[in-house]
Amino acid sequence: MHTKVDKALSGFIDQLFSQHRRSAFPGPRGGMIVSDPKTADAILRAPDQFQKTFKLLELLGKSRFGTNGDEWQARRELTHRNYLKAGMAQNRERVAEVYRRRLADCESTEPAAISRALLAASTEIFHDAFGCTVAIEPMLDFFDHARVMLKQLQYFSMMPPDPSELEALERHARSLLRQYVVETERSPTLSAVLESWQSQTRIDDFNAADEFMMNFFAATESSSSTLSTAINRLGVHQAAQERLAAEVTAGENFAQLECFINETLRCYPPIPFVVRQVASETEIEGLPLKAGNVIIISIIGIHRHSGYWKDPELFDPARVEFVEDAYDRRAFIPFGKGLRTCGGTRLARLELAEGLKAFIRQFVVTHESDELSFEYSLAMRPKSWEGMRIARR
Ligand code: HEM
Q: Is 1.10.630.10 the CATH number for 2-381?
């Protein structure tokens, strides 16, 4: 089962990497895939006509990610101020300290261990934003478990399950949610946050643990995956690694580092696509759409559109469009766009910068080949570490 799911999801991501030259084409379940920046921009800016949908992922509980309108607004209110505060410049040193410590304490220099340390740092920082302290290792073990389920739910959102498969998924989801509640009960500070959410929220069937868990997944998976991908690319681009090391040591401005992060997000956006559902009959690029049709916006496709990027396939650590700040904002949307843009963009940016600085200060990395493939659950993570070597400086 795992292999079938992994293969299908990787196959879909490969399709997005290979089909980006066309601006709109048919997608799974009667929907369409869009990779034209202008068209995608128009869709993302019309959240009432093109609504968010989370499909089977909602078996893991309802959350802001799959709701719209007033309910979405009420759910967003729960985290909005925490994310803004956590993303402020005043929090930079705290974020830097967590990455520095987690990487310094990492007992092994195996890429998988470094990747886990990055996820641990992001998990600590996420809970910090709510004033919560949790035991990190059990949370990461739980997340490893959950990732298997998330992959299955993504898969069955594309390939509808038969009734017995659906029943098995529902059972598995319920058991996972129970496991999460047990994890939250270990932490008095997290329990207190959940109790206050539960008592202050006026939404039918609201479950604070479900809401918190989905936020936790979204926040930590994409930041740590991006850092793992960036480290992988540093291994390939040795000259860039040296330039970045000099820049980080000088500690004055971090323009090259920012450029490297942007190029990582452009070539390998951790959220490779976003999904919308058509609210009422309409058309896009001449293709008619009915209410309920699904639109997949390929962030990969938009980021590699040849009308907007020079040599779009090339990973260029010093890409001129970023260096000169001369690119069309519609063609670079790693954090989404419009009302439903990423709720944690500023914190994510802090984490990417401070996480990569901490890595560069402590380690050097080499990679034998340019090859990079991904596994996909909620975000794209490098699939294999073969050929990659990390050593302490
Ligand atoms: C490199 C890191 C990250 C990337 C690339 C990223 C990307 C995205 C994208 C593309 C979306 C939009 C999904 C859509 O339009 O359907 C999104 C949504 C979201 N992200 Fe992030 N994200 C990152 C990190 C974070 C962090 C650190 C947090 C929280 C601390 C966070 C919280 C959220 C939330 C709450 C939403 C849902 C917004 C809504 O209610 O519609 N993300 N993210």
A: yes
